[in-house]
Specification:
alpha+beta; Double Stranded RNA Binding Domain; three-stranded antiparallel sheet; elongated; disordered N terminus
């Protein structure tokens, strides 16, 4: 069983986080990764944190908007460096299994789709959407949230690793759905309509 890189260069390992995978691989070898916070962005408007992780004579640095995100980024970078040296083998000489590494911070919100959808509603005089959490599954360390967006008679559902991501994802899907139904001109702020009913 070998650890490998996926199609997009991402590590491939089940639904485990990079920190968990690194811990498991090193634990089988009787080793422990050493994490060190090398930059603390607390107190800034746009905080950035940097962690360095070391193990097996290698080290890697990761950054993120939270300490946890930076730690996951560092672990993923170290795993990639370990893989570049060849197959990762445990103490028993067995190659370590790989599937898909999914960081809980993958797909973190880059665009405010919730705000964009509300803006579209204001411009087109449509009542605001209603968001309802319709599901929550998985163990505490790997929760999956499902969010439903109801806009008049249209509804969309999306699933993500955090409530915030699920809400933005479902808002993005709703924007796409409204564009499909009503067209690009409808969403334009140049000529706002008198009143619209979806």
């Amino acid at each position: 069983m070998a650890v490998f890189l996926g199609e997009n260069g991402e590590l491939a390992m089940g639904n485990k986080t990079p920190v968990t995978i690194l811990q498991e691989i090193l634990q089988k070898k009787g080793l422990v990764p050493h994490y060190e916070l090398i930059y603390n962005g607390t107190g800034t408007l746009d905080p950035v944190f940097k962690f360095q992780v070391s193990a097996e004579g290698l080290s890697a640095i990761g950054d993120g908007k939270s300490k946890k995100q930076a730690k996951h980024d560092a672990a993923a970078s170290l795993l990639k460096r370990m893989l570049n040296r060849g197959p990762v083998v445990d103490n028993g000489g067995e190659e370590v299994v790989a599937e898909i590494v999914v960081s809980p911070y993958d797909g973190s919100v880059q665009t405010n789709f919730v705000g964009r959808l509300e803006e579209i509603c204001v411009i087109n005089r449509i009542p605001f959407p209603v968001y309802i959490q319709v599901g929550e599954e998985g163990p505490p360390h790997a929760r999956i949230f499902s969010m439903k967006c109801q806009l008049s008679s249209i509804s969309e559902t999306a699933t993500a690793r955090t409530k915030k991501q699920a809400k933005h994802l479902v808002a993005q899907q709703m924007i796409q759905r409204v564009q499909e139904i009503l067209g690009e001109e409808f969403l334009s702020s140049d000529n706002p309509p008198e009143q619209n009913d979806l």
